[in-house]
């Protein structure tokens, strides 16, 4: 149980889909705001972290400490095979879970109730306990099975937030695009942030155009 005034944590999963930076940035922002974060990474997810972000897979604990150790929130890393971890039980209190990015394989497993590892088990717990579950699919093009699985989950109340950055706020860097996506996830979690400029009827774009 959480003590009075203490924030409940979030579970963040990172799979082998491209876009591991989304999950990393989400964890960073949640920790910056003092939330406990329970992190789960699939085996393929670790490979993508290595390929896309240059993380050393052989030094996982060291990498996590270097990236997140100085932030105020507390990071709890759970190996994907640890099916007895706290987050595998509905009696363990967390606000909800985000899988970012979410591979089509993991999305399919969640849609069909296949809980053969800690990531899919934790997602199944969110469904059965009626907690927030957000999936950030990153795949293109999508075929009918992908779309049917997303529709099935959406009907169960799962928030599907595809990795689709916007351009109305005039992003200048890749970080801007990442922050927009993470900001949309945080909006769904009802977590306050200032990661991107919200639409104001085009006034911000007009001001930027004049400044240029």
UniProtKB/TrEMBL annotation:
Broadest EC class assigned to this enzyme: transferase
Protein name: Flavin prenyltransferase UbiX
Functional summary from the UniProt entry: Flavin prenyltransferase that catalyzes the synthesis of the prenylated FMN cofactor (prenyl-FMN) for 4-hydroxy-3-polyprenylbenzoic acid decarboxylase UbiD. The prenyltransferase is metal-independent and links a dimethylallyl moiety from dimethylallyl monophosphate (DMAP) to the flavin N5 and C6 atoms of FMN.
SUPFAM superfamilies: Homo-oligomeric flavin-containing Cys decarboxylases, HFCD
InterPro entries: Flavin_trans-like, Flavoprotein, UbiX-like
Residues involved in dimethylallyl phosphate binding: 168, 184
Superkingdom of source: Bacteria
Organism classification: Bacteria, Bacillati, Bacillota, Bacilli, Bacillales
GO molecular function: flavin prenyltransferase activity
HAMAP family, sorted: ubiX_pad (MF_01984)
Flavoprotein domain span: 10-188
């Amino acid at each position: 149980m959480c003590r009075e005034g203490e924030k409940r944590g979030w579970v963040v999963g990172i799979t082998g889909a491209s876009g591991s930076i989304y999950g990393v940035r989400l964890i960073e922002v949640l920790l910056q705001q003092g939330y406990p974060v329970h992190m789960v990474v699939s085996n393929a997810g670790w490979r993508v972290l290595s390929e896309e972000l240059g993380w050393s897979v052989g030094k996982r604990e060291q990498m996590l400490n270097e990236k997140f150790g100085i932030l105020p929130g507390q990071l709890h890393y759970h190996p994907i095979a640890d099916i007895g971890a706290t987050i595998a039980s509905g009696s363990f209190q967390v606000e909800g879970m985000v899988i970012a990015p979410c591979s089509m394989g993991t999305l399919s497993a969640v849609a069909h109730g296949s809980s053969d590892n800690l990531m899919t088990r934790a997602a199944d717990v969110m469904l059965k306990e009626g907690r927030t579950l957000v999936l950030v699919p990153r795949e293109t093009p999508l075929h009918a099975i992908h779309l049917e699985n997303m529709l099935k989950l959406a009907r169960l109340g799962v928030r599907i937030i595809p990795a689709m950055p916007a351009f109305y706020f005039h992003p200048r860097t890749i970080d801007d695009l990442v922050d927009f996506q993470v900001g949309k996830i945080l909006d769904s979690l009802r977590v306050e942030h200032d990661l991107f400029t919200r639409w104001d009827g085009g006034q911000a774009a007009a001001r930027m155009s004049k400044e240029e």
